[in-house]
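REQUEST ID: PR-0412
SUBMITTED BY: lab tech R.K.
PRIORITY: routine
TASK: structure prediction, single protein chain
INPUT:
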Amino acid sequence: MNTSDLSFALGALALLGLSTFVLVQPLWRVARGAAIALPAGLLVWAIGMYAWLGQPGVWADRVSHEQAAQADAAQGEEPAPAGPTDAATSPQMSQAQVEGMVQRLAERLQRNPEDEAGWRMLVRSYETLNRFDEAVLAWQRLFQLVPPDADQLTAYAVTLGMARGQSLTGEPEQILDEVLRRDPRHVQALALSGSAAYERHDYERAIQRWQQILRIVPADDEVRTRITAQIDKARELSVREAQVRRAK
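STATUS: complete
OUTPUT:
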């Protein structure tokens, strides 16, 4: 597995579920769960291997084994026997051990600052540990190496919002606007942008963003129910605030 493959895998796993999670009020705050959608045990294992060995290729073997076990379980079959590395990584690790792994990864990147895949893993590691300020810096260092795509900018906006008092207003919202200039149909960015507008009590803008999602997602997509409920709530609050203004 080469560096670009690893980067793609991490990015896809990181954003997995965003379109579902971010459509619950407060919509964006649980989006951080999508940023750490990678199972904790698997992430810890990947961090440790990468920090100590610098061998991202072993990631592919581990993920393949996990996926095969899940497929066997779904079909009612006995999971394939665990490989030799599974036994070595099965004990529950303490918070201090995880922190130590992340620290070693950070130190490794200081010695090898051009390691794109390593910076991606460090971002996810910091997010998993709720160290959002450091995750922001790691994102920024990654962007110095590789220009970010729309998905990465969206994930960065969530991390930045978490680092700034759990608020998407200000710079996070500006980043989301940039995403939508690049890709007006980016569902996650539309959802989060609507949440930012909602947070500022700009209900009309929130409604506009969420209505765009309704024009994109399939008619039978279950997420439409949650979007519609949010639009109805925004409309209700918009009417209520207008009544208050008229009463003054």
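NOTES: Residues 223-247 form the longest helix (25 residues).
REVIEWED BY: pending
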